[in-house]
Structures are given as C-alpha cells and as structure tokens.
Amino acid sequence: MRIHILGICGTFMGGVAALAQAAGHRVTGSDEHVYPPMSEQLRSLGIELYQGYLPEHLQPEPDVVIVGNVISRGNPALEYALDRGMDLMSGPEWLARHVLRDRWVLAVAGTHGKTTTTSLLTHILDRVGLSPGFLVGGVPTGFGVSARLGEGPFFVVEADEYDTAFFDKRAKFVHYRPRTLILNNLEHDHTDIYPDLDSLYRQFHHVVRTVPSSGQIVVNGLDRRLDHVLEMGCWTPVVRFGADDSWHAQLIERDGSAFRVCEAGTPVGEVRWALFGQHNVANALAAVLAARHAGVPVAEGCRALSDFSGVRRRLEHRGEAGGVAVYDDFAHHPTAIELGIDALKRRVGNRRVLAVLELRSNSMRLGAHRDSLAHSLLGADHSFVVPGAGISWDVAATLAPLGAHATVCPDVDATISAVLSSARPNDQILVMSNGGFGGIHERLLAELAGREAGQ
After folding, report:
1. Continuous segment of H or E residues that includes residue 387
2. Phi, psi of 326 (to 5 degrees)
3. pLDDT digit string (tens) for 251-272?
4. Would the pTM of this model clear 0.70, i.e. be above it?
C-alpha cells in the first residue's frame, strides 16, 4: 500500500510515517517546514519527502492520504485529494486501526512532560526485555527514532490533547483506548482550540472514559485539576503519586539527579541518572508506576532509569564553546519555561543562566500566556525574547517587570548578536522554542567557537 502523509515532519506524523514503513507500506510525505530532529529521522529511514503541498505529490494517486492536524481547507494538496475523492484518514485513526488494535496501550497524557515520560516508560519496558512498540513526540536518544512497532504486547504512546484533523476536532488521545493511562498534569493550553479549562476537562474526561475497569490510571496527586477530571466520573482503579501519603520521591541530590521512590514514606527504589529537574523526578515517578502496572517491580524500574540518556530537545545539552554551554528545550508554555530554568539553575549553581525564548505557539500568538510570561522568566539572569510571526501584543510591555534583565529581539540575527554581547565564560544558554528557531543553537556555538579561536 502506498501512503502519503500531509504534514509529515511534525513529531507525531513523522512517527506514524516510521510505523507505516516498518509495517511494509511505501510511505511518502509533504511538508512546508522541514527541520531536525524529524527531518533527519525520515531521511535516515529512506522516506521520500516533498517540500510544500503540491497536487503533483499525490500523483500517482496513493491508496490513502493521512492528514496531519496542521493541514486545513485551502491547502492545495488537500483540495486536490478532496476533489478526487481520495481516501483520507487522520494519523490517530490510522494508528488506532493498524497498530494499537490488540495491543496493551500505555498512554501518557498531560499538558507538560508527555514526551519525556513516554520515553522513560518505553525505556523501562525495553530494559526489562519487553520490547515495547512506541510513538513519542520527540526522539529518545537511546533509541534514535521516535517510533517503532515493537515485538511484545505493549505499546507506549504519547497521548496528545491537541485536535486530530480538520475533519475530526476531538483530541488525539480519544482514539487510543489505553489500558494504562498516565495523567501527568493539566493546565489551560492550546487556546486556539480550547477556549477555557472546562473544554479541556471534557477532553481529558473523554479519555478517562475509555480506560477499562481492568486497567489503571496513574495520576499526579498534587494536581487538583486532575482530581476534577476524575470527579466527572471514573470507572478504573487509580494510583496517585506526588503526595507524601502516596507514591512520592525523596531527593538525594537537590537538582533531582538522584532520588528515592517511596510508597507512603517507605523507600522502594532509588534512581541515579543523567537527567535533572524536579519535573523530571515527577515524570520518572509516573513512568515507574505505569511500568509497575505492566508487571515491572518498582525497584527494577528505578534501576532501568540509571542509563536513560534523555530526549532530543528536552533540556538537551547541545555543546560548549568558549566556556559557554548551550542547551535546547522544547518549552513554550510559561510553566514549562519556569521549570526548565529552575532545573538548570539547580544544576549549575552560581553560574549565570541566559534564557533565549521564541514566542511561537498558537497560544502565545493569541496572547493567552502573556500575563504569566514575565514571571516564568524570573529565574533567568537575563532573558532574550523573540516575538514570532503573528504576535500582535506588546511583548516589551509584558516583560517590563523584568527591567534590564530582559531584551526583546526582532529576529534571530539580532538575538545572536545580543546573546554574544552578554555571554561570558561559565554562562549557560537555555534556548526554548517549539520550532527550529532558525538553527540558533548551532549558530551560537559556531560564533562562540570563532570568538574563542580569535582570542
């Protein structure tokens, strides 16, 4: 079967492409914006990519066109497919029909931490020999790919609450029918789709309603919003983590690089790993408990995390030059921005953290998070903020509470100049964006290396 994917370079759709090819289909795809890590993964798999959305990409006619949720009416390739009555399907629907059926699905949902937690859970199951299938909205460095079919009954999927396709406005995760469900946290996000928290509550409750009574829901017990979702109706056993009277962590190292997993105060396992940050400790708790439902003892799950090497674009150390380190983080929501800065500050102690942030998400464009933006950057020693395309609100006024500790930059070139003027040895540069950000990470490292060589 020939499958063509519109919007193939998104992290989810790129994973679908990898699974479809592994299942024996011929896969091609089109996209407008191609950037790592997904472009690298697709090319390494030999999947043919087309730049833009031209009708001729659908010639000869594929057996099915999988449509990403970034594709809307007016797209030339979509209009061509509709006019000719081609078979259209969303990515989540294809995944549910052709991969998840008859599998034990472990789904990871929440506003923050989905990619990392999905990767952690996959890593645990893989390390104990269960060979799970998986689809992650990123690239776990230990696997090198964002998706694989796997060999056993288990399939781990990042369960996104974003909408499914232009013709299916339900959240992606309602398609997955998990037996094990992680609910990490819940905040108002994706304001282009969900006007208020109530609309998000309904979507999260929809996925809760699909978990069988023989399944299990692993819930962050510190998030009152998740309690509200469960109070709307729950027919599945619930395991909570985070509070002292439930499963929780005792820090051994302040930065979260070592901790004990405890049940009601009693240590059950210990983790010493390469990751850091309080949010990653919470992600690990969720993953260990979900693996426990799949039959992995907690102590064994903790040991498996000792060699977890991280996920691309999640507090990823991209390099060091001139004594300055550069990190890449996918953060774009104020909570994630604040948590990323805090994690790095705890890690590096007295060294300065320079935050470089691109305002790019749909919620940022709409101004949904502007009131909390300045507060999210308070932990950085200096912040360089680039308003992305479509930002019409006054970013400088929003950041005024930060005073001289924030600089608004008009574009990537100006940002690089401003950061280089400020950076000095031992500084830590934390780049945050949910896009390619003009390759700023490599450009900063190259400039820093050139500056060092010229000294």
Report:
1. strand 382-387
2. -120, 125
3. 999 888 999 999 988 999 999 9
4. yes
